[in-house]
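Archive entry. Fields below.
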Amino acid sequence: MELPMKVTAEICVIPMGVGVSVSRYVAACRPILEAAGLNPVLHAYGTNVEGEWDDVFAAFRECHETIHDLGAPRVFTTIKVGSRTDRAQSNQDKIDSVHAGRE
Amino acid sequence: MELPMKVTAEICVIPMGVGVSVSRYVAACRPILEAAGLNPVLHAYGTNVEGEWDDVFAAFRECHETIHDLGAPRVFTTIKVGSRTDRAQSNQDKIDSVHAGRE
Amino acid sequence: MELPMKVTAEICVIPMGVGVSVSRYVAACRPILEAAGLNPVLHAYGTNVEGEWDDVFAAFRECHETIHDLGAPRVFTTIKVGSRTDRAQSNQDKIDSVHAGRE
Amino acid sequence: MELPMKVTAEICVIPMGVGVSVSRYVAACRPILEAAGLNPVLHAYGTNVEGEWDDVFAAFRECHETIHDLGAPRVFTTIKVGSRTDRAQSNQDKIDSVHAGRE
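PREDICTED_STRUCTURE:
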């Protein structure tokens, strides 16, 4: 039986073959990440999320599918993902730790 | 019903909290990627694979679990993943295209 | 003569060989990025900046040097960088475009 | 006075606004990286190089400039870069370490 694995992650999608302007494709991902309960936070180079590994990557797959459905023949995505077994840590915890200069 | 989605991907795992030398953790991922039939190709900044989205990310998850089992309390991973609907393209095809100066 | 090249970028530094907690190393980068006038915005998976290519990468180099000086024998960093010739675009412009569902 | 900083790095360039096929742009980077003496090794998700920090990032900048000159209005690039003070390590050393299951 598979154990749960809580992760924090960042996704940055680049639709290719649709011209220089890609924001409407990126915007289409937000409701997917929200509906999956992943607490998405948009920034200028991606969107940060958090949740179970399987939920996170099922939602990322749905982002690819949706961007293809919107007309992009190719999608290039970069992802960062982190897991830890020593303690729970949310995306906000990570920011707070840096602001405090410790972790 | 979920349609198949063939992808090429790159994974680069960084175990944290285990000292400066991490190769044995990286080495432990190889049999996982091979057993999953993902055709892994190791390079100096990661391992390239190819296969169905769900198979690729299930194997990546297993890499995280295995690295934790080997004693790393924290794993930071970067992933690139690409899908295209216009035609099939393997990792070797991508290299061949650049060598030919076209795609 | 080298022309100016304005870029937006994201940096995410991972000190290795210093244990599982790395926030004080990440925190040491902020004053470097601020002093360089790069308008840093911290998020949970990195810091976004903007400025001239040479200024951005000189500051990123100084981050590596500082983290080594603080005692980390190894630093692994991921960077995203974007340039465009069609128009100027700040990090805030990018976020605004996605919120507007266009670019 | 600035000390030398030897790094290994990976660059993956994505020209945007030029259609779905981007290999000729990627191919144009190779002679730049070779002329800079960075020992480039192409793989399916980027090119690995090694050299002094300043030489590496001057060459990466020249890649952006060249891709723009070839007609791409926007370039999105992901970079990994590593430095270490405990010992010298080339890209080939990194691969050998993983194959040996140690570092």
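CURATOR_NOTE: Strands of chain A lie at 6-16, 41-43, 46-52, 74-84.
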